[in-house]
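Sample pair:
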Amino acid sequence: MSLLGRIFADDEDFGKKDDDRKPGRTNILPSWSTHKPASSVPAYRRRTILYALIACIVFYFFFKNIPEPTHPPIKRPQYGKPPSHTPQNPWQSTVNPETPTQKPPRPENPSEAEQHYYDGPIKFYKLAVSLRAIAWLRGHIESNRNVLFAASNLRSASELIPIACQMASWERNDVHFALMGRDDLDMGGVKTLNGVDEECNVKWHDARPDFSPWSSDFRMEASVSAALGHIQTFMRPQVLITDDAGREDGFFTKAIRAKAFEIGRSVIELPTDASESLMWISRLDSGSLA
């Protein structure tokens, strides 16, 4: 080959080498893009799974090999008054126990009259049963048809019961009668004394406390207030009807007025001989009376 040919041949080789070094001409890719990992799970995750399996195995054998106790468990000591199997709160009792009839213990220095001296805790042995029996009368609703007649003695009861029975006969109200005084005659005897038969559709509530014949005025006043509070919870009467204040006991009138004001209820105090002159009031519904 001539000298000129060798020169041009060398130039051609140089051109090819230059073309090979130009960007974008190479087919060589980075090694990481073509390398396929041996496993799809990273190494740190494999270690985590292994540790978790080991921990599960250790806990399994630990709890499986716990030795059984060879002696009965030791009972912890209990301090204070042991619980009684007899419910002390009459509101939690499902039965109707008889109200105590014997006299309560007399204090050494009675603060009031010889007969009315007892100031102990108040319990209602019969009120809970009758109030639970009227749950279907919508007593939980503020506006209902409940009307409550209440008396503190048999004389006032004889004035109110005829009006209550007459009102119940019109079937415009759900009529209730509550006795809250000291008389120890049971409700059956009260109804018999006033000639009440099965046609009188009144709901009866004995709201007298235990030891009522021997209770002081202070205890009876507190009892009337507490009984009306329970009645409000279960019944929510729209109005309270009582006898003339001069015929009712003083503790009763004072407590009824105060508690009725507290719970936002109206009190109608009927005048003397209302069963003869105001029998028309029995035709009014609870909304009109309130």
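The CA atoms of residues 19 and 25 lie 8 Å apart.
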